[in-house]
Specification:
The structure holds two protein chains of two kinds.
Chain A lengths: L4 H4 L18 H11 L4 E5 L3 H6 L11 E3 L5 H17 L9 E7 H7 L1 H10 L4 E6 L39 H6 L5 E6 L3 H13 L4 E6 L3 H4 L6 H10 L6 E4 L2 E4 L9 H6 L5 H4 L5 H30 L1
Chain B lengths: L32 E5 L9 H5 L5 E4 L2 E5 L9 H5 L5 E5 L7 H4 L2
Classes of the chains: A alpha/beta, B alpha+beta.
Chain lengths: 316, 104
Amino acid sequence: MTLKLRELTEKTEQFGSGHALCAGCAEPVAVRQVLAALVNPPVVALATGCLEVATTRFPDTTWKVPVIHSAFENAATTISGVEAAYKALVRKGRMEPRPLTFLVFGGDGATYDIGFQWLSGALERGHKFIYVCLNNEGYMNTGIQRSSATLLGAWTTTTPAGDVRPGKLQWHKDMTRIIAAHNIPYVAQAAVHNWKDLMTKVRKAEAADGPAFINVITPCDRGWRFDTDKTMEVSRLMVESGLWPLYEVENGVWRMTGGGQKRRPVIDALKSQKRFSHITTNGDESVVAEIQRRVDAEWESLQQLCEMSARAESES
Amino acid sequence: MPDEQAWREIAIGGTEINPGSTERVNTGAWRSEMPIIDFSRCTHCMICWVDCPDACFEISDTRLAGIDLDHCKGCGICAAVCPTHCITMVPESSVPVKSSESGA
Ligand SMILES: Cc1ncc(C[n+]2csc(CCOP(=O)(O)OP(=O)(O)O)c2C)c(N)n1
Ligand code: SF4
Ligand code: SF4
Ligand code: SF4
Ligand SMILES: [Mg+2]
């Protein structure tokens, strides 16, 4: 499977313009890349969040494919219902079978926090759908509140940085590995700056025999405090520093992707975002050192999983 | 805005039935800097197309043809990612205003 951009431009764009997402927002970039990569026409369910709010202002829509929005927390349940209804209609002869891809976009708040049990249930029931998490590490649509995806030390409006506290105090939840523990056919981490890696993962997710989950880092210039033209550079730094490793778990086999084996210090990524300026410029290096220590440990554990998978594969 | 609808006329569930209709919103008015392409150096690699948040790159026969300035918000991502550096961001005030953008 080779993906060529010039060929992909020939596909009719399924997500338009005139939406109200901020200039430089990574969320619509991820959406456009996902939709461009799909082979089948999609049916989309959206969780509440910047993407949904800014693309479906009544009476308008930015979407050119069917989209359902129900509530903040239940997009995975909504798409489960759509998939089950489709199967029932085909079974009863009331609809011709057709190639369709059932797709969800949810933010990190929707995915890691409020929609967690709904997503977990849909994965366990085994519905055939792709869940794409647009992870900007915060509840951006309601004004940059911390979520369980927010990095340690980050400033948000609910983790203010000052003399008493250096931003967020907790380490983030590793949602991708939690999803991998559901033993579904396809799980991956991707990033907007690497379109080829992201689109390849979407193709694999679409072809998977069951539920698939892709966690995409989507830097938010508004909440992470960087200039609007730096979105792709910040995304790249998140990956290259090991804060967001690109990998996939395909039928239980763990694999690093996107050529990202070499790493640079986390400080390079932290410095690109003013939400960390209090820990990168105050002379106290303890928070940065703690982030580096945890990233090193997680990286090591990820490499071990990949090596174990490679060994198991070569032995079988 | 189209004619305002009375509540009885709104479809149940608030269904929006005009695919892509936000295209009537002129987000080009947000811009403070405008991307200008030097086509003599463009290789038609389409990196700008795949990274634009606002789907602004116009394509004709798999070649880059122009930028939709009624929707470009001037973020500058395209200029930052172009491998041949052939997109330049220039201050909006230095280019003549297009008629569709003047009457906000
Ligand atoms: C049950 C419920 N609680 C709270 C809200 C308010 N709300 C709307 S969007 C949002 C934040 C969404 O954050 P996330 O899922 O990370 O998406 P983002 O906006 O960051 O893309 C919140 C708290 C809501 N709509 N419904
Ligand atoms: S607040 Fe962040 S995520 Fe929301 S539209 Fe703006 S840049 Fe995008
Ligand atoms: S990124 Fe640059 S070289 Fe490539 S198509 Fe766009 S303008 Fe042309
Ligand atoms: S400046 Fe931003 S919105 Fe405008 S064409 Fe470039 S990437 Fe798209
Ligand atoms: Mg978020």
